[in-house]
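Dear colleagues,

I hope this message finds you well. In preparation for our joint manuscript, I am sending the methylmalonate-semialdehyde dehydrogenase (CoA acylating) (Psychrobacter arcticus) sequence together with its predicted structure, so that both groups work from identical material. I would be grateful if you could confirm receipt.
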Amino acid sequence: MHHVKQLINGQFVDSNTSEWIDITDPATQEVIAKVPQTTDDEINQAVAAAQKAFQTWRKTPITTRARIFLRYQALIRDHMDELAEILTAEQGKTIADARGDVFRGLEVVEHAAGIANLQIGDFVENVASGVDTYSIWQPLGVCAGITPFNFPAMIPLWMFPMAIATGNTFILKPSEQDPMVTMRLVELAVEAGVPEGVLNVVHGGKATVDAICDHPDIKAVSFVGSTNVGKHVYERASQSGKRAQCMMGAKNHGVILPDANKEQTLNQLAGAAFGAAGQRCMALSVVVLVGAAGEWIDDIKAKAEGLIVSAGKHDKDLGPLISPAAKARVEHLIGTGVEEGASLILDGRGITVEGYEKGNFVGPTIFDNVTSDMQIYQQEIFGPVLCIMRANSLDEAIELLNANPHGNGTAIFTQSGAAAHKFQQDIQVGQIGINLPIPVPLPMFSFSGSRASKLGDLGPYGKQAVQFYTQTKTVTARWFDDEASRGVNTTISI
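The corresponding structure tokens are as follows:
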């Protein structure tokens, strides 16, 4: 049985713990590895190594840091197929989706390689007579990241490359449900030249999360995951004096106007609602049909019925959910939808995949006539379940969306530029797609979820990540001529 190692001070080491967590193949329930609950002493060792490494890493030339990430992105490209296969085995998503998971993280690594352009400060000459003022963006120190199960390649790559490129050292805690692809990415980072102690990895559940939030030498914590855990991390880390950014739950809506390109819209809707078995914080889990678009119900159902569910390695359309508990929760919520009066027009419960009878499979599921007081609307289902609602006008649809507390992402499908402009201006959601269902921006921008989907002012990767992982130091300087003398000045002026 493979035991997942930790990375402490440049060494991949076994844990001394007595507590091990099973990693299972979601398609078979076979235990494929075990991951440790890292001990408190090992967490302290990792932080101490990061603190020591920071003293030299922070002064490492920025071009040296950039070149490491140039090498790193090349290594990720070279190992893309291997990484996708590892990811699928432990997480369950299809091979194609796994490659997309790795690739979207790779884009952030490429962005980190341009850190010399991203971390430039400001300079103003002669703000007063003979006085110059300039600002510099300096690293914070030891930072940490806590990542979820649904994107075990992309989200770690959102975090540690930007933190390390800006001169910090890092403690990474991957999801205990699927840490193996993360560890392979970490191995490649070490191969690319990340020095000892600059990147460290610890494992486990709540005990490790709390230790990271509490440790006095950790200056900032980045988190992506569920709302309940995100609130806990934000409050606990903030109370310990840390910077914190927490990307949390969502309820993303797609608004379809009658003039939308029908075939393109239906294809995008099916992919965004059911891809990754709905286990995306950016999944389009609610569709609002405006006016005559309400006649598209049968077409939406037909697209969903055409999707194939199987083990991820067979690279069909949907793989399994991450765990039996996740499957049970999704099926329970489907049951509440029926009980509360929604019209179940496609039921994905009870699906069996030949050869994988023990898998955590739920097929595409569609509810019509959903109302905002139902549990299937109020809760993030995190499964392949689409809720259909109706609106008589775009204004009514916008009002419906703005009444929902979450603000991760939304989309509108239309051929009207005026309608799209009104939507982007009036909607109170951080990320908006126009004829594009999952509007996650490329890393030259920043992930900008909002409202109940986010805690903290700054998002991960992109421009905001550079701000999050650095502190601004402003210097005001005057150099006197040897013969210059102005006498004593007791005023506040320069």
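For the figure legend, we might mention the following. Residues 2-248+461-475 form a domain with the Aldehyde Dehydrogenase; Chain A, domain 1 fold (CATH 3.40.605.10). The first strand starts at residue 6 and ends at 8.

With kind regards,
E.M.
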